[in-house]
Amino acid sequence: MSLNNLVKRLQDIMRNDAGINGDAQRIEQMVWILFLKVYDAKEEIWEFYNDDYKSIIPEELRWRNWAVDNKDGKALTGDALLEFVNLKLFPTLKIIEIDENTPMSQIIVRTAFEDNNNYMKDGILLRQVINVIDEIDFEEYEDRHAFGEIYETILRSLQSAGNSGEFYTPRAVTDFMVQMIKPKLGESIADFACGTGGFLTSALKVLDAQVQSVEDRTVYSNSIYGIEKKALPFLLCATNMLLHDIDNPQIIHGNSLEKNVRDYKESDRFDVILMNPPYGGNEKEGVKQNFPADLRSSETADLFMDVIMYRLKKGGRCAIILPDGFLFGTDNAKMAIKQKLMSEFNLHTVIRMPHSVFAPYTSITTNILFFDHTGPTKETWFYRLDMPEGYKNFSKTKPMKLEHFATAVEWWDNRQEITVDGFDKAKKYTVEEIAARSYNIDLCGYPHEEEEILPPKELIQQYQEKRASLNADIDRILAQITEILGIDITAEEEKG
User: What is the pTM of this model?
Assistant: First the structure.
């Protein structure tokens, strides 16, 4: 069958259903159905190799026993199908019994449905959607290969589906970061806000090429670990891992920030961490208590940096995407986080990325920080990746490609300072120079960045971050001056 227009076919059917509102809900609807189809295909393989295999899904709820249309007039449709899905399938899968002995391959069934719903209200249209998805044959190499492209199409669709866009990091970016980190088979790889699993699948692609034996395949299948807070990306990630032959995917549906960082043991640490944490968000006060007082921040991305520093093994490597606000921020929490980062870890490289990499979801400029747990930072290289020739912006029709990183890849192994039109494009700074700047590492930036017009919400956020940073700088300088002059400002204010 031709799978190239599968997503469009599904969306066209669902547009006629009054229960679904917008692309985000259409994608959610598509994904839980896809999950059950993929899971059933995996169960066929598990049953083939294990005569004692027993499904956690009750027999009548398995895809093969209710979703497959044998064209004999007996397939559920219309109101009968809606009643089955809404009153039997979802309620049962949401409360499947699990315990400490239940394998992750079965736990994901319950977690996949705990926070999901069926939005469709027309049972005939729902039957049409199910039939289209059932056309995919995961045992056929062509279908399996083509489905990878379809999956990418679904993920790209998330970018323009309202808030769902935050779940998708362009494949070019994840592939570049993995290429620079160079994961090796046998290393543990984690993403604590894994979204749809983009970083994990990029890493698995590299590890798969290193597999040479049955033992290697076992090591491969136990290499990755992810946590995702939101239901839709979690379900996408779990499906993604099954398609990559990770039969017991260690993908947890939860919030990485809800555990006290002081409680992490050596077994909770990883060799490689790859992340694009959510930023611009705020966590409740109870969550902030999970971090040492000096590292508590109101910015979600800062808290994820804290988690990484507590969960990276000695000798481990990390690549993380962070907004400009982290670089230029000198408020107390950001200062403390950057001081800890540079005194305990080796922040060796910062890649400044051009604007619109994440368009249309956000125009805020982002950066990739590369560091390892091999000792304190001595010097940090900054490299500005300029917009490719002929591009004013990246977009859905002109996305960032791996080839756009070619100059950075070439520079990586032969580092030299570069100046273009009087502005630094690549330069290294000692940790002493960075400390003298109050850990403001907004270096080798874009000389004409001020010409970019951001959406109002993002402009306000950027100005708020810059104002907080400036206020922190002013307070610190004032404190230094008053200390030199021996003036007690508090006493003067009380006297006044």
Answer: 0.84
